[in-house]
Amino acid sequence: MTDKFMQAAIDEAKLGLKEGGIPIGSVLVHNGEIIGRGHNRRIQNGSCVLHGEMDALENAGRQPANVYQESVIYTTLSPCSMCSGAIALYGIPKVVIAENQTFLGEETWLKSKGVELEVLQDKTCIQLMTDFIEQNPTLWNEDIGV
């Protein structure tokens, strides 16, 4: 059974796909409450930076440093270099990752920065990304900088 925070991230990913975007979602959780949610909106907004994690951070708004340092970020896909950098920059201590089978981000680097990682290998997210990558290889390669 998927916990409510990861389910919220999955719901964001599905919303992104419905909007014609890349199905990656994220939520930022502080003290058991979602303070920011988002999904990859690069295509929808013509943005070069709005990955799911970046969108969730943006939608959380400006927060005091201690809020980030007491938060957990949930993401449907292993964080890329950009998103990992933001996680480290703001001192977010834990990342819950739905899956890293379709894309392995900067997990080793995050661990080297003291970030705790929990990888779930969620079958729904693996299938969502597998299907998207097969159907949209050009968009996927653009998103990951290939």
How does this structure look, described?
The longest helix has 15 residues, at 4-18. Strands 2-1-3-4-5 form a five-stranded mixed sheet. The chain has helices at residues 4-18, 42-45, 52-60, 65-69, 81-89, 107-112, 123-135, 137-143; strands at 25-30, 33-39, 71-75, 94-97, 116-119. 47% of the residues lie in helices and 18% in strands. α5 links the parallel β3 and β4 (94-97). The protein is globular. It is of the alpha/beta class and 146 residues long. It is built from eight helices and five strands, in the order αββαααβαβαβαα.
List low-confidence stretches.
Answer: none
Terminal CA distance reads 34 Å
Secondary-structure element string: HEEHHHEHEHEHH
Care to count the β-strands? 5
Concise overview:
With 146 residues, this protein is α/β, with parallel strands linked by helices. It is built from 8 helices and 5 strands; from the N terminus they run αββαααβαβαβαα. Strands 2-1-3-4-5 form a 5-stranded mixed β-sheet.
Topology record:
Elements: H1 4-18, E1 25-30, E2 33-39, H2 42-45, H3 52-60, H4 65-69, E3 71-75, H5 81-89, E4 94-97, H6 107-112, E5 116-119, H7 123-135, H8 137-143
Parallel strand pairs: 3-4, 4-5
Antiparallel strand pairs: 1-2, 1-3
Keywords:
5 strands; five-stranded mixed sheet; single chain; 146 residues; alpha/beta
